Amino acid sequence: MCIRDRIIGELGERYEIADWIANWQLSVWQDRIQLVRLRRDIYVTPDESTHGMWSSRWLFVLAAAGSAVGLGNIWKFPYIAGENGGGVFVVAYLFCVALVGIPVMVAEVLIGRQGRQSPINSMRLLVQQSEGSKAWSLIGWAGVAAGFLILSFYSVIAGWGLYYIGELASGGFTGVDGNTATQALAALHSNPILMAVFHTVFMGITIFIVARGVVSGLERAIRWLMPLLFVLLIVLLGYGIASGGFAEGFDFMFALRWESLSFDGLLVALGHAAFTLSIGMGAIMAYGAYVPSSVSITRTVMTIAMLDTLVALIAGLAIFSIVFANGLEPGSGPGLMFVTVPLAFGQMPLGALFGGIFFILVSFAAITSAISLTEPAIAFLVEEYDASRSRVAVGLGIACWLLGLASVFSFNIWSDVYVVGEKTVFDSIDYLTANIMLPLGALFIALFAGYVLPRVTVMSQLGITSESAMAIWTVALRVVAPLGILAVFLYTIWPSG
Ligand code: TRP
Question: I need a surface site. Which of 87, 154, 304, 469 has the fewest CB within 10 A?
Answer without folding.
Answer: 469
